[in-house]
Every structure is written in C-alpha cells, then in structure tokens.
Automatic annotation (TrEMBL):
Membrane topology annotation: Multi-pass membrane protein
Transmembrane intervals: 13-32, 44-62, 82-105, 117-139, 159-190, 202-225, 381-405, 417-439, 459-479, 491-513, 538-560, 572-598, 618-637
Region (Disordered): 286-324, 688-713, 725-751
Ranges of Polar residues composition bias in the record: 302-314
Low complexity: bias regions: 315-324, 688-710, 725-741
Organism: Psilocybe cubensis
Sorted UniProt keywords: Membrane, Transmembrane, Transmembrane helix
InterPro entries tied to this protein: Rhodopsin_dom_fungi (IPR049326), SAT4-like (IPR052337)
Domain Rhodopsin intervals: 29-219, 401-597
Subcellular compartments: Membrane
Name of the protein in its database record: Rhodopsin domain-containing protein
One protein family per Pfam: Fung_rhodopsin
Family: Belongs to the SAT4 family.
Entry GO CC: membrane
Length: 751
C-alpha cells in the first residue's frame, strides 16, 4: 500500500494556519495575564515553545521549497537543517507545553495543598522525560558530526542501530505523559463545586484536549515503524505530522486559558441580555382578584432582536375592560414559529424517504459492493495495524486509570501490583507488532531465527503471561472483598495458586511441544501435524484456560448474588461487569478454532490468527480493568446525582401515619383475654413533627386503642414514644415493648 503524492505547498498552507492560531492564542493569553497582573511561571515557561514554534514555521517554508524531500539521506546544509535540530525543536515544544499546562493546573490550588505539591512533582517527572527523549535521540543513529543523524542506517537495520529504541521511547513516554495530563485534571476538578453545571463541563472538556496530541503521537510512531508500507511519501508525512503534533501541544496549552477568557466575556454579555429579556417576559394577570381596569396591549413590530433593543416601539393598541372570572390572561410579546411542513405533508415525506431507503438497501449490487469493501478493509495491512493498536491503547489506558485511582485513594494492593505485569507485556507486544509489520512480508509459520525477540516462543510467552496474570489479578480483586477470616478469602488464595501453576504448565507445554533448534525457535510446522499423543497437552492447555475463564465468571456471580446492595441497580452493574469475562471466552474460542482448523481457512488464516491472539490478549487486560474503572465512574456519577437531588429536593412535607402500624398495635393489645378499658393514644405536636387534631379515627371496642390519624414525617420506628401508664393492668405492660421510649422526639403517649 502506497500513499498518493503529497503536495508540500498544501501542507505548508495548512500547517501555517495552525501555527498562526497557536501563536495568536499564546499572545492572547500573555496579554490577558499581564493586563490582570497575574503572570506566573506557567506563562513564563510557555514563552519557550512559542518562540520555537515561530522558528519552526520559518524553517518549514525554508526547507520544503521543492517536491524532492530528503528522507533517508541526512541533510548536509548545516546544523539548523539537521535531523537532530528538528527533533530538538519538536521535543522542546511538546514537553515544555506539557510543563506549562501542569503549572497552570498547580497554580489553582493553595501553596500547601497536596494537589499543588503533586503538580510540582509531575513537572519534575515531565522534565526528566524530556531529557530522556533528547538523550535517546542524540545517541541513536549518530552520524559525523554527531548532530547529523543517519536515518537511512537506522531504518535499514532498526534493531541493531537503535531505530526501534526511538519508536519505543516516543510511543511509551508520549503516550504516558498525555494520559497523565488528561486524567489528572479530571480527577482534581471532579469534586470541585462550580456555580453553574456548564462551567464544569467546559473545564473538563478543555483539560481533556490532550487527547488530540495523544492521537498525533500514536500516528507519528505508526508512520515511523510503517514507512515501508507508506512508500516514498512517508518523508513528508512524518515531517508534517511531527509539526502538527508540536503545534497542537502549544495550542491545547493556551486554548484553556484563552477559551475561559472568551467564555467569561460571553457569559457576562449573556447575563446582561437575560436581564434585558427579563423585563419583556409574558404578563400574567389574575382577573379574579384584580378590579376590572382597562388594559392596553402593545404589539411591537420588527424582528425579536429589535424588540429587545427597542422595547418602546409600539404599533397598535387594544383596550381590554373585562375578562372571565377565575381565569388568567397571558399576553405573549413574541410570535410563535410556524412548523416547516404541515403534518400530512411531513408524514408523507417521511414515508417516501423510508420507502426509498428500503428499495435501495434491497439492491444486490450494493450488497456486493459492501462485501468487496469489507474484504478489502480486512485485507489491508495498515488498517489491521490501526485497529489492533486502538484496542491495545484502550486496554493500556484503562489500566493506567485504574492504577492512578488506586494510588490516589491509597488503596493499592496485590491485584494492582500484579496487573502491572500484563500491562508491560501488552505494551511490548504492541511495539513488536508494529516492528514486525514494517514491511509487507508478515511471517506465520516461519519465525525469524536470528532474533530471540521475534521468535515464536517469545510471542507465545508474552501471550500466555498477559492472559494468565490477568486471571490472577481478577482473582486477587475478589480476595480483597472479604474479611481475612472468611472462607471465601481462603478459597480465592488457593485459586490464585492454582492459576499460577496452570500458567507454568502452559508455558512448559508451549516450550517442549514444538521445540526447534535452538530451543526458543518454535517449529510451527511440527505443531500443525501433531499426533494424538501430542494433541493432548495442547488441548489441556486450551481447556485449562477455558475452565479458568468459566470459574472467574460463575464464582463472582454466586458470591454477589446473595449480597445486599443499597440500590438494585448496583447489583445489576456488578454482576454485568463480572460477567464481561464472556468476551475473553469468545476470543479464546476463536483462537482455538483458528489454531486447530488452520488448513481450512486458506491464506487468510495468518491475518485471523494474528488478530485473534492480540484481540484475546487486549480483551483480557481490558476486562479486568473495566470493572474497577466502571465502578469508579459509576460511584462519581451516583454521588453527583445524589447531591443534585438533595439540592433540588423540596422541603419535606408531613406524611400520613400508615394504618398498618395502628392495626399491628391493636392486634397485640387484643390478644390479651382480660377486658381492658378504652385507651387513647395522642401524639403531641412538636417542632420536628406536625399533627392534625381535626382528623380522628373512630374508637374501637374495649381493649382497643383509639388512634388519631395524625400526619407525621416519620416511619414505624419514629412513631414510638414515651409510655405513661396510669392504673393499667399488668398484662398491658407488654404494650410498652411495642412502643419504645424516645422522649427526645417530642412525642408523648397516654394510656
């Protein structure tokens, strides 16, 4: 797959517009901070990437002055046009923009606040990451002199010369930094109270703008590792996407401050306009309580905007002297918009559109076209790499969110420490996948015998490590739910040991079943033609994984089925999250079918097998982190919803006392055989409870109680009051056990 020819002039114009936008927003930010006397370190730091973006824009027009852009050959025009200087500008703009953004978040908190200290620590970490990137860029693929990076030597032998190191450093450090800068402000501002709900949404959306730089960072690494697939146009794509990434980093940093300045101005204008419109609201007149006076209706002319700006304009007047009694006359000062279509015409148009869509979808030619398109997309190597990368990045991102949440709440435990192992191996698998598919020759049964890192055994080891350690982490998550002495906790620990032994068994089977020479070169041709005796260990490995998945689905369902939840929706959510392991079982089933029936799938079995292995691996990591992250988000949403409901809840009204309570009390009294006098229970009014003396229930027979149907705002337990007995038989003393003593409620009961 080769990309079409890229026009340098079009790229120049597009990137220059982005450069000017980022530079302009920086000037707006600095001017606003200087005018309000609020300049701080984040404003001083942002001056460094601003100056380098200006240099970058000038060099862009000076370099790409012809269609022949050098890619593999280093530029010999001097230090200012070298690859090292380009990388230095790119990294400096990106990382100092992130440092400025972190300082902007830190300045919002008090000097002794933990979040401010955390912001300073994050600034130090980001600066160390910047130095690491500069160091690896300088030491990888050096030329003569040192600032002439020989890109042709790096890309011709990326493993030995260190070209892969640059890709790994960029994709890991940039991705981790962007994820931290997206998650950290969201966690900090989640509990902050804002005067308006839309302010919260705006601030969280602005601080989540680093997702743009995250996408461009992944795109840069994909172009670097897949330059063979893209063709000769990879040079200008790599250069332009790098420029876009650095400029977007500065743009996102300044977009937050500039947007808030504009939003504050717009909100003030909106409040003023709402104050004006408040005087032109519809007039409601209660004619029943108002003497019949003549009223004058004024109908303004012109557009609604003219009505607001010129409220004194009057075109006609009408006198109103009388109106029906007990009615309200609403006089609207604005006209209503008419519908676009009449009802019949609108329904006819909808039915016609639906019929045309139905006819079009029934054409066989369109179905054949969609089928061909689907096959072409699935056979596209670049699309396959992108889709797998997205799934891996989603799983890795959820794992980082989980670890950040547990570390922030100081709840890190063994299940969080164990999940780091599959996270590291999954990230390594993603990088190896991009390196392997940097050319059109993808291997299937013939692994690279010259490198251990590309061997089939190491790929299988990564796959099994991610799968089984995800199982172990999920089992440990169940362990921490129960108390130390609970037998469920002991059973879970035993199950963790069993899972680790099954992991060792699977690794041993993959090592000795299809061993080559040397031992880590797995001979897949022998694995395809296994005897009955050799198939048994392989079936044992697959079945053990299937049984482990089934146990991790059924066991939590049985445990949480009897658990009591305060909200019924919590039970459904917890059970659904633990049942998400069905996805890993489905991926395992597809993997097993692909492996055992490889000859029947044809040449596409390479794509299918590679996709299912990475899919199973990424879904396993995704599922174990999805449970914790989903519960964290749900808890935040529920707490916000409860606070919103409490804020909007009206004052509590008195509730009626249920008749069931009186009947239960009466039934207890009527059980005694002795004839009892007539008793009357009265509830005295108090400040916390209100009673109505006008409503009284009919008195019962002798031995019963006559209870007024008073309205109280209490439940069954609150109805209990102090019992005062005078000349009551001893058999009635049992009633006092039903009505407990609570004098502090302000209630009194007299028998």
């Amino acid at each position: 797959m080769t990309f079409p020819h890229q026009d340098p002039l079009a790229w120049k114009v597009a990137l220059t517009f982005v450069h000017l936008l980022s530079l302009g927003l920086t000037i707006v930010r600095i001017r606003h901070r200087w005018r309000t006397n609020r300049l701080w370190w984040d404003d001083y730091v942002v001056g460094i990437p601003w100056a380098l973006v200006l240099v970058c824009a000038a060099l862009l027009w000076a370099k790409l002055n012809s269609k022949d852009t050098p890619w593999y050959m280093p530029n010999a025009q001097g230090f200012i046009h070298s690859y090292w200087f380009d990388g230095f500008i790119f990294l400096t703009i990106t990382w100092f923009s992130r440092i400025s953004l972190t300082l902007s978040v830190a300045r919002l908190f008090m000097p002794s606040h933990p979040y401010r200290i955390y912001g300073y620590a994050l600034v130090v970490v980001l600066f160390l990451m910047y130095l690491t990137s500069i160091l690896f860029t300088s030491l990888s693929c050096p030329g003569s002199p040192w600032w002439k990076i020989d890109a042709s030597r790096c890309l011709s032998n990326p493993i030995r010369t260190g070209g892969v190191v640059i890709g790994i450093i960029w994709i890991t450090i940039d991705f981790i930094a962007d994820v931290i800068l997206v998650i950290t402000p969201l966690l900090m501002f989640w509990r902050v109270r804002f005067p308006k709900p839309r302010d919260r949404s705006l601030i969280l959306a602005l601080f989540a703008g680093n997702i743009l730089t995250m996408f461009t960072s992944v795109l840069i690494c994909m172009i670097w590792l897949s330059h063979g697939l893209i063709g000769p146009e990879a040079a200008i794509l790599f250069k332009m996407v790098g420029e876009l990434h650095a400029t977007l980093a500065l743009l996102v940093t300044n977009l937050q401050i500039a947007s808030m300045v504009i939003y504050r101005k717009f909100r003030d204008t909106t409040d003023k306009s709402q104050t004006r419109r408040h005087n032109a609201q519809p007039i409601a007149v209660d004619v029943a309580n108002t003497p019949p006076e003549p009223m004058t209706l004024t109908t303004p002319t012109g557009a609604p905007s003219e009505q607001i700006e010129n409220p004194d304009v009057q075109s006609s007047s009408t006198s109103l002297s009388e109106a029906p009694s007990s009615q309200k006359c609403n006089f609207q000062l604005s006209s209503q918009a008419q519908p676009l279509f009449p009802p019949k015409q609108s329904s006819a148009i909808k039915s016609e559109i639906k019929w045309q869509y139905h006819i079009k979808t029934k054409k066989p030619g369109k179905l054949r076209t969609l089928d061909v398109l689907r096959r072409s997309i699935l056979s596209d190597l670049f699309f396959r790499l992108v889709s797998i990368t997205v799934i891996h990045c989603l799983a890795l991102g959820l794992a980082l969110i989980r670890l950040t949440h547990r570390w922030r709440t100081r709840r890190l435990w063994w299940d969080d420490y164990v999940v780091i192992i599959p996270w590291v191996f999954d990230l390594f698998s993603l990088v190896i996948l991009c390196v392997q598919y940097s050319s059109n020759k993808g291997w299937w049964y013939k692994p690279d015998l010259s490198r251990f890192i590309f061997s089939g055994w190491f790929a299988t080891f990564r796959y099994l490590t991610v799968i089984w350690f995800c199982h172990i982490s999920l089992a440990l998550s169940l362990v921490r739910v129960f108390l130390p002495g609970h037998w469920y906790k002991k059973a879970a620990f035993i199950f963790v040991i069993v899972l680790f032994l099954l992991y060792l068994l699977s690794v041993s089977i993959s090592t000795f079943l299809c061993r080559g020479s040397p031992w880590w070169t797995v001979n897949y041709d022998r694995c395809r033609k296994l005897s009955v005796r050799q198939i048994v260990p392989l079936a044992l490995s697959i079945s053990s994984d299937l049984i482990a998945n089934a146990v991790l689905i059924i066991w939590p369902l049985l445990i949480f089925w009897r658990a009591r939840f305060s909200n019924p929706s919590d039970r459904i959510l917890v059970l659904a999250l633990f049942a998400s392991g069905v996805l890993t079982m489905m991926a395992l089933g597809i993997f097993s079918i692909t492996w055992l029936a490889a000859d029947k799938f044809g040449p596409d079995v390479r794509l299918l097998f590679k996709m299912t292995t990475h899919l199973h691996q990424a879904i396993s990591l995704l599922v174990i982190n999805l449970q914790i992250v989903s519960m964290m988000v749900y808890r935040k949403f529920r707490s916000s919803r409860d606070r919103f409901r409490r804020h909007r809840r009206p004052r509590e009204r008195p509730l009626e006392v249920p008749d069931v309570i009186h009947q239960s009390t009466l039934s207890i009294i009527s059980d005694y055989p002795t004839s009892l006098p007539s008793y009357t229970v009265t509830v005295a009014p108090s400040t916390s409870l209100t009673s109505s003396s006008s409503e009284q229930s009919s008195s019962e027979q002798s031995g019963s109680a006559s209870v007024p149907q008073s309205t109280t705002s209490t439940s069954c337990n609150v109805l209990s009051s102090e019992l005062v007995t005078t000349s009551v038989p001893e058999s009635v003393s049992a009633v006092s056990s039903v009505v407990s003593s609570q004098p502090e409620r302000g209630l009194s009961s007299t028998l």
